[in-house]
Amino acid sequence: MSMRMQTLNEEEEYNWTQRPVRDVIVAVDHGPKSKHAFDWAILHFCRPGDTVHLVHAVSSLKNNIVYDVSQTLLEKLSSEALNVSKVKVMTRIVEGDAGKAICKEAEKVKPIAVVMGTRGRSLMQSVLKGSVSEYCFHNCKVSPVIIVPGIEAGEESVNSLENREIPL
User: Fold this and answer.
1) Residue 154, SS3 per DSSP
2) Measured by CB atoms within 10 angstroms of the end CB, which terminus of the chain is less buried, N or C?
3) How many Å apart are CA 93 and CA 70, to the nearest integer?
């Protein structure tokens, strides 16, 4: 294994600002735990210059009401992400089972991570009804999946991005 080292003279400074641009998928829905995960990703994970892919899964794209409501959600979140974190935002409304659709998007984008919330179901409820985050955790093979615990887990630093701006 080779390691690349850079030697600098005393007068030179290392340029720490050159960071590679990263792709990050944030899976969103209309729930508060999804919004909490989005807020966490924008404040604690994403860096200025990253590309955030907001992915929202719906059962059918043919329902205009569902599509319009989903588009409104993604526009609102896109605006927040741009204002707070100075990231590039791409949005996708995808049709199908949420877990499978998110994993399929991850295969296309190849992000450094997939960030999502959890519904906060009990173990028994997750076993009986299934869990999107659990499905993605076990089946998303191209990227790590970050499951942000719900607000009740004690995360007080991120309740809302409203009126917040991250200094550059």
Assistant:
1) coil
2) N
3) 7
**Quick check: pTM over 0.70?**
yes
Q: Which two tokens stand for residue 114?
A: 């997939």
Question: What are 2's two structure tokens?
Answer: 């080779």
Query: Residue 49 above 60 pLDDT?
Result: yes
Residue 40's closest CA among 164, 158, 161?
158
Quote the pLDDT of residue 168: 45
Structure tokens at 96: 């199908």
Q: Which has the closest alpha carbon to 87: 111, 121, 71? A: 111
Instruction: Extract the runs of DSSP E, i.e. beta strands, from the chain.
Output: 23-27, 51-58, 88-95, 113-117, 145-148
Q: Which of 34, 38, 12 is nearest to 24 (CA)?
A: 38
- Give the least confident one: 19-28, 36-45, 56-65, 155-164: 155-164
Confidence class of residue 21 from pLDDT cuts 50, 70 and 90? confident
